[in-house]
Amino acid sequence: MLTATDPVLVTPKYLIYEGITIRKMPWFLWFAFNPKKRCAMVYNSQIYVSPKIFDFFRDRVQDYLSIALLQHEIVHLERKKQFSQLKRRWEYWSSAKFRLKEELLADEATMRYLKEQKLSFPIEKRAKKLSSALYLRFANKY
Ligand SMILES: [Zn+2]
């Protein structure tokens, strides 16, 4: 059963979760984000999720892993507000250490949420993903 804090469908095009607009990721990003998996990203002040996640929320399917991913992206959104856009972009593209730190901070939110739900964090899967091309293989450097 979904709770009051779960994402709410406002129109067929977007949802609201904790005051943040959630949209379906556009198809042209599917080369990088598999639409059949749980994927999400922050762009401007919104969170874009894969069709799999969007459809779960739209159909009010309880999926803790999708909510955990939203918690992760919310940390990215909050961190983004702390830096000027230019400085953040520069740090992101020039520093693997910065990218890793940002991901670990966001993963902490995921871990907290999953722990509240008495679920474990998929460490192996996450480590593999952080070592992938999507994350510019920065985890391999440490
Ligand atoms: Zn992230």
Structural write-up:
The protein has 142 residues and is α+β, with helices and mostly antiparallel strands. It has 5 helices and 5 strands; from the N terminus they run βββββααααα. Strands 1-2-3-5-4 form a 5-stranded mixed beta sheet. 17% of the residues are buried. The model has no long low-confidence stretch (mean pLDDT 88). It binds zinc ion. Zinc ion is lined by residues 72, 76, 103, 106.
Q: In which order are the strands of the major sheet placed? A: 1-2-3-5-4
- Give the count of structural domains: 1
Judged by helices, strands and strand pairing, the structural class is alpha+beta
Q: What is the average of the pLDDT values?
A: 88
- Total strands: 5
Q: Number of helical runs? A: 5
Q: What ligands does this structure carry?
A: zinc ion
Proportion of residues in extended strands: 5-15%
How would you summarize the topology of this molecule?
Blueprint: E1 8-11, E2 14-17, E3 20-24, E4 40-43, E5 46-49, H1 51-58, H2 64-82, H3 85-94, H4 96-116, H5 123-130
Parallel strand pairs: 3-5
Antiparallel strand pairs: 1-2, 2-3, 4-5
Helix pairs in contact: 2-4
The chain binds zinc ion (ZN).
Residues 72, 76, 103, 106 line the site of zinc ion.
